[in-house]
Amino acid sequence: MPRPTPFYSRTAALCESHSWQEWSGFLSANMYELHHLREYYAIRTAAALIDISPLYKYLVHGPDALKLLNRVMTRDIARCAVGQVLYTPWCDERGSIIDDGTVTQLAPGRYRVTAADPSLRWFQDNATGLQVQVEDISDSLAALALQGPLAGEILQQLAGPAIAQLKYFRHAAAVIAGMKVSVTRTGYTGDLGYELWADPADAERLWDALMAAGQPRLLRAAGQLALDMVRIEAGLLLVAVDFISSKKTVFDVQKSTPYELGLGWTVMLDKGNFVGRAALAAERERGAAWATVGLDVQWESLEQIYKRYGMPIHLPETAWSNAVPVFSDDIQIGRATSGTWSPLLKKYVVLARIQPQYAKPGTRVSMEATVEAQRHMTEARVTALPFYNPPHKRA
Amino acid sequence: MAEIYDAVIIGGGHNGLTCAAYLARAGRKVLVLERRHILGGAAVSEQIYPGFTYTVCSYVVSLLRPEIIRDLELPRHGLQILPLDSSFVPMENGDHLALWSDPATTRAELQRHSKRDADAYPEFNQMMYKMGFAVKPILGMVPPNPLSPGVDDVRRLVELGRHAKGLDARTFQQLTKLMTMSATDFLDEWFECDVLKALTAINGIIGTMLGPRSPGTAYVMLHHFMGELDGAFTVWGFQKGGTGAVSNAIAGAARQHGAVLRCNAPVAQVIVRNGQAVGVALESGEEIHARTVVSGLDPRQTFLKLLDSRQLPSEFETAINNFKYRGSSGKVNLALDGLPTFPSMPDRALLQGMIEICPSVDFVERAYDDAKYGEFSRRPFLDVLIPSTIDPTLAPPGKHVMSIFVQYAPYKLNGGWNAKQRDAFGDAVVNTLEEFAPGIKKLILHRQVLSPWDLEQDFGLAEGNIFHGELTLDQIFFLRPTAGWAKFRTPIRNYYQCGSGTHPGGGITGGPGRLAAMEILRSGK
User: How far apart are CA A346 and CA A298, in angstroms?
Assistant: First the structure.
């Protein structure tokens, strides 16, 4: 039976749809209203509050904290100053990705790491011989994502301009309605946004303070269905959907590497040794087997398929995550792993992993599309990621 | 020598801008001339009252052609349409009707009014969807001329015939009914609940000088259902920032393709030499030369104001003179100190959707009765939206803007329109609203009232008709604006029309602008 998060009393009261899913053992709302579209638009045009408490959170501290993190992570954590946040994957010895998350240096030698999957044992095992402590603080931190173009205005009202003007991927300690809250300028939406980390005892009061301040700016709670659409627009991969953690795969064919996932920029081969470095160096030498790209499904092509059935196009209203094959001239070149109609971009956008020789933006490929239970091929164009990258994301 | 443009477009409304964007995209050198200080025509957002952005005239978007959104990449230029997913009608007995995007909630609500209608409603929507699908190809097509068909006309007529042949007998029968009946008569065959009929029938009267019981209004109702058709594009929505932001998005695309857009540049006349348009003369006296001149204005201005009438064949001139405008609506924009309260509203979430003051078919028909005899409605039908409840950037936090489309306000008012009449009309609107939302008067910080006369004066809409001429059966498709001249051409060589007075007509569709550009390009200009 999934557990409630620290915000449950508030999210449950709002959850008219009674539609929940399990997320890392917690109850997580799929959508609050009967339809998720207003939550989607809240993220993109106003502001939304997303309960992200189920994320795994670790505190890494001690004299060798940096050493441990630089041993595990692919990015150079030495570059993460106090008050800074870095996004990074971590890999196994063969360079296959285990998970990804953020590392925040809260105070000198004191780091907070977020993860999608349980990672305590992995971090501890890699700390052998090091003077470092890894604590699982998942249950002692409630977490909220405040995302959307108006998120800054709302935060400014509650925490003052210094916090609201926090730079992209920076951290600061804030006081909101008398509560100590750790704020990072991060998110999983590709929009302007913040993540707030607080004492679970303060969770309900924090929620109420945000909702009250956000009300004139149409802040609303958003669930997983809306989040899934925006993260695809933002070109952000989802573990267990767009790739599988190497810890959870039994066979090699199911594994993937940062290079294959378009995360090559996070692999710092020259920072010194780290788990997976040798394998990743070799992979870079010979070139990755796959490339992760966006596909822009061509509306006219899809329309022609539906026309054969005398029908207008009908697309699912939520994002899909069942892999479908991608072809070039009838030869399969890869797979599409998730996709969604983007109401904002007015495009049918898809994340896909294909052979690198087809990855050049503009390349025409085709993707399987099923209409009336019959298989067809619809034309798609390879696109660079992200699909949506507004200036206010980093401004 | 001054530079010569490939095309000069008169009027920076959304269709003129669409036409410009398509021509520029095809490599043509294009200039748009707008009379006002701001682009957009009747699709403009302006801060008439400081801090409050009004979507001054047009206020919702649904019919904007998806191919235009794609071709011009409008989302990249700022197109962001927020869905409106409920309709609320307060009734005179204190009850209400609320329709939601969620079918189960809507069904439960309809069951309160009529169990039969709760069953009929989804079937009705499905039927209208099918009807829309049946006539949809027409919207994206240059109308063929069936009166003296050329080769292309024959091809298009055959295409249409094939499409019609594909429709089953029942669809064809329903289509015929829609083309000929009144909205109310048509709805009587489906529903028994009066307020549901009133709410559905208003789609049939918007922008026309007809009542819900006038024949021909069923078709206009269908026109408003077309937006439902494009699968994912769908639903009535509100553009973030108001409809001016739609115009700005199209303008952005036009500029990106190299079109030059000039404001404060009123055109006095089209320069015609030897039966051929060669440029325009501005009111300032400046002359601009062009290989093609395109007018985005309505037919009256396009032909009777910008041309010397001796240049037109007399039969054509008569036909243009007979084209019906009969503006029947006005617009009131309010800045509000807070949200109004409708005692009959069961859920404040309904404030984020459409609010329709049409409590019964009789209420709307009576509103029309006043207009028939030259008065504005004492208790008008109001199509109300509080856009700041879905786009908080339009008003300061906690404050709101309200857009009220009002019908009926006849252009030919007894005694004529003047400032006093405009105020009295504004009062009738606010008083009617006060009946259903007591206390709203006290919230009003600022009021902008636009009568049909104002719409003509300020926005150049002949007789204040929001569609550049009524969308009745005698004035659509190959008859818009008149038989033989529905293909965006005019009797003057190199002079084209691209406004809502051409096919497929009014509303923010971009259709006339796009189709006109395609005709111009096809003729090698």
Answer: 11
A315 touches chain B (CB under 8 A): yes
Q: Is A260 left (phi over 0), alpha (psi -120 to 50) or beta?
A: alpha
Domains of chain B: 4-43+64-81+241-324+466-522 (3.50.50.60), 107-229 (no CATH)
CB B453: neighbour CB atoms within 10 A?
21
Q: Are A136 and A117 in contact (CB under 8 A)?
A: no
The answer to whether A35 contacts B240, with C-beta atoms less than 8 Å apart, is no
User: Which chain A residues are within 8 Å of B350, Cβ to Cβ?
Assistant: none
Rounded to whole angstroms, how far apart are CA atoms B509 and B62?
8
Please tell me the number of Cα atoms within 13 Å of A242 on its side-chain side.
29
Residue window 339-368, chain A: list those with CB within 8 Å of chain B: 341, 343-348
Q: Does B390 touch chain A (CB under 8 A)?
A: yes
Strands B276-282 and B287-295: antiparallel
C-alpha dihedral over A40, A42, A45, A48, to 10 degrees? -110
Q: Which residues of B touch A41 (CB under 8 A)?
A: 82-83, 390
Of A218, A299, A344, the CB nearest to B75: A344
Map tokens 């006095």 to a residue: B268
Q: Does B79 touch chain A (CB under 8 A)?
A: yes
Helix (H) or strand (E) holding A267: none
Q: In which residue ranges of chain A is CATH 3.30.1360.120 found? A: 8-53+141-222
Does B85 contact chain A (CB < 8 Å)?
A: yes
Give pLDDT, residue A61.
98
CB contact under 8 A, B231 and A313: yes
Per the CB < 8 A criterion, the answer to whether B508 and B14 are in contact is yes
| Bridge partners of residue A273, in order along the sequence | none
Reported as type and span, the H/E element at residue B154 is helix B151-165
Domain A291-386 has CATH 2.40.30.110: yes
Does residue A381 belong to the interface with chain B, where contact is any CB pair within 8 Å? no
Q: Kindly give the interhelix angle for B151-165 and B115-139, rounded to the nearest 10 degrees.
A: 160
Vertex A67 angle, CA A62 and A73, to 5°: 115
Decide: helix, strand or coil at residue A92: coil
Distance from CA of B109 to the nearest CA of A (A): 15
Task: Give how far A40 is from chain B: nearest CA, Å.
Answer: 10
* pLDDT value for B231: 53
Q: For chain A, which ranges sit under pLDDT 50?
A: none
Does pTM surpass 0.90? yes
Interface of B with A in 346-385 (CB under 8 A): none
B17 Cα to chain A: minimum distance (Å): 20
> Which helix or strand (DSSP H or E) is residue B398 part of?
none
Identify the three-state secondary structure at position B292: strand
What's the CATH fold of domain A8-53+141-222?
Gyrase A; domain 2 (3.30.1360)
CA atoms of B363 and B435, how far apart (whole Å)? 13
Please say whether the beta carbons of B241 and B358 come within 8 A.
no
Residues in chain B within 8 Å Cβ distance of A310: 166
DSSP assignment, residue B359? -
Residues carrying CATH 2.40.30.110, chain A: 291-386
**Interchain pair A346, B74: CB under 8 A:** yes
Q: At what angle do helices B115-139 and B103-113 cross, to 10 degrees?
A: 130
Q: Which residues of chain B have pLDDT under 50?
A: 1, 229, 233
**Whole-complex ipTM:** 0.87
CA distance linking residue B287 with residue B269, whole number of Å: 10
Contact call for residues A40 and A229 (beta carbons, < 8 A): yes
Residues of A in contact with B233 (CB under 8 A): 346
Q: How far apart are CA A164 and CA A167, in angstroms?
A: 9
Tokens coding B384: 């109300």
